[in-house]
Amino acid sequence: MYVRIGAGVLAAALVLTACSGNDTKPTGGSSSSTNEKIELNYVNWDGGMDKVVDDWNKLNPNIQVKLTKPSGTGYTLYNKLITNNKAGTNPDITEVEYQALPALIANQVVVPIDDYVKGLDTKYDKASLSQVQFEGKTYGVPQNVCPMVFFYRKDIFDKLGLKAPATWAEYATTAAAIKKADPKKFIGNFTAADPGWFAGLAQQAGANWWKADGDTWTVKINDDASKKVADFWDDLIKKGLVSPQPNWSAQWNTDMNNGTLIGWVGAQWGPNQLPSIAKDTAGKWAAAPLPAWTAGDTTVGIWGGETEAVTANSKHPAEAAKFVEWMNSSEAGMASLIKNVQAFPASPAGQQLPELKSPPPFMSNQPDYNTLMATAAKGVRTFDIWGPNANVTFDSYSNAFGGALQKKTALSGALDAMQDATVSDMKKLGFQVAG
């Protein structure tokens, strides 16, 4: 159950300015005042994270990190953290997806790390810092950035004499050309199972679902930009030009593997997932920039991404913050994340590390894959702030868009349902919402 949040607790506005003018390099190491051995508890569900922790522990004998896999991921974990906060039983450090961080801040589960980590403004761009900074305070170091891109079956596109669409208008035209050439094939799908996917597309179009001014929130999930995105896909669905099969479903996996789906609007991390989705197609896909609404515009949204946060229960916040900084900001930490977790660093310097010189194995036919991702990352645009109940918004997305597809009603109406559900829940939780 979602825990009640006081409206005045969460930061009113997002600050993108520097935390400090000092550019100190993260070094790891022991406690600054003693040789006492400290153990930090860290909860994270990512595969390969144990090896990253091992790398830290070898470098820092007096600050040892103990990794625990949570019993549940996402909001299952976050709700447990909220519940356990008052009991004082939370770990020192927790993994947090960007959209969930405001809820943990609002519930005072996590604490600022500005006293321990300096100079992030010299290492990260505004879009990345906006995911972890609220009311001028920093609650994590950005770990990865996940710009949205377009994956396509280059072998089939070449056979059909087609190229990756540069604009959404071209996407629609190409979708029609594919359908004409082979009625059984689709350029892609619309997914009612992935609210983060739609949020990223709305970000690209200029949407800003939440704003805060003092204790007053403004919620505009059904704004014009978001409805433009919904209407675009609605038109493609009605014309039969895209598949309505949701991502990750058994049928979607089959269609991605057998060539029924020859395109996918995805994100940077796609090659990490494709081997289990379309195992027979390795080396046949290529990545291209996400189609733009206006030719030449490089703006893209994100789909996914996370940080690590220091909890209010930690008795060693300085050491915990040092670990977070090392992992996400130091060359050694980022190299370990790339190698072991397949993360794409939010740090522009991290995006140039030697570990990214080779493409993901699934994309071995595209040597410049990571260069493309670094270029795409420069155009990332995100929401100014995520709402404190993004879980309700996300749940409403799946229900509302799934219902619209089933009933064949306008997708834009699903945004109205999301708006109503989000505002109603915020008011119930005690937030002041304008309008």
Helices and strands in order, then pairings?
Layout: E1 38-43, H1 49-59, E2 63-68, H2 75-85, E3 93-97, H3 101-106, H4 126-129, E4 133-134, E5 137-138, E6 148-153, H5 154-160, H6 168-181, H7 195-205, E7 210-213, E8 216-219, H8 224-238, H9 250-258, E9 263-267, H10 270-277, E10 285-289, E11 306-310, H11 317-329, H12 331-341, H13 369-377, H14 390-407, H15 411-429, E12 432-433
Keywords: Cell membrane, Lipoprotein, Membrane, Palmitate, Signal
Organism: Kribbella antibiotica
Signal peptide: 1-20
Q: How much helicity do the residues have?
A: 25-40%
| Total count of strands | 12
Low-confidence parts: 1-33
Overall form: globular
Task: Quote the CATH topology of the largest domain.
Answer: D-Maltodextrin-Binding Protein, domain 2
CATH class call of the largest domain: Alpha Beta
Identify the strand order in the major beta sheet. 2-1-3-11
**Span of the ends, CA to CA:** 27 Å
CATH H-level name of the largest domain... which superfamily? Periplasmic binding protein-like II
Based on CA atoms alone, the radius of gyration comes out at 22 Å
CATH architecture verdict of the largest domain: 3-Layer(aba) Sandwich
| Tally of discrete structural domains | 2
N-to-C SSE string, H for helix and E for strand: EHEHEHHEEEHHHEEHHEHEEHHHHHE
Structural class: alpha/beta
Report the major sheet: 4 strands, mixed
What is the helix tally? 15
Mean pLDDT: 92
Strand content range:
5-15%
Pfam families: SBP_bac_1
Protein name: Sugar ABC transporter substrate-binding protein
Keywords: Cell membrane, Lipoprotein, Membrane, Palmitate, Signal
